[in-house]
Amino acid sequence: MALRVTQTRSSIGTKPKQRGTLRALGLRKFGHTNDLPDRPEIRGMLAKVPHLVTVEEIAD
After folding, report:
1. Which of 21, 26, 33, 41 is buried deepest, with most CB atoms within 10 A?
2. Kindly report the CA angle at 55 between 53 and 60, in degrees rounded to 5?
């Protein structure tokens, strides 16, 4: 199982830690998508920025 993460809102005006979390998820700008493994570390990062991203579960 994997996760497809898409940045749906801009990081302008967000806190520096949230911008760092988006970078760690591999998201650079609005509309960018990245496929990531479904691991607890990734789920934790997504929990910090739920208002900026959408998450879909995809089959490997």
Report:
1. 21
2. 140
- Token pair, residue 40, equals 């607890």
33-37 and 2-7 beta bridge pairing: antiparallel
The number of folded domains in the chain is 1
CATH of residue 31: 3.30.1390.20
pLDDT in tens, 5-50: 999 999 999 999 999 999 999 999 999 999 999 999 999 999 999 9
- Its domain, for residue 14, covers 2-58
Supply angle C-alpha 14, 5, 29, rounded to 5: 45
The one-character DSSP state at 23 is H
The pTM (predicted TM-score) of the whole model is 0.90
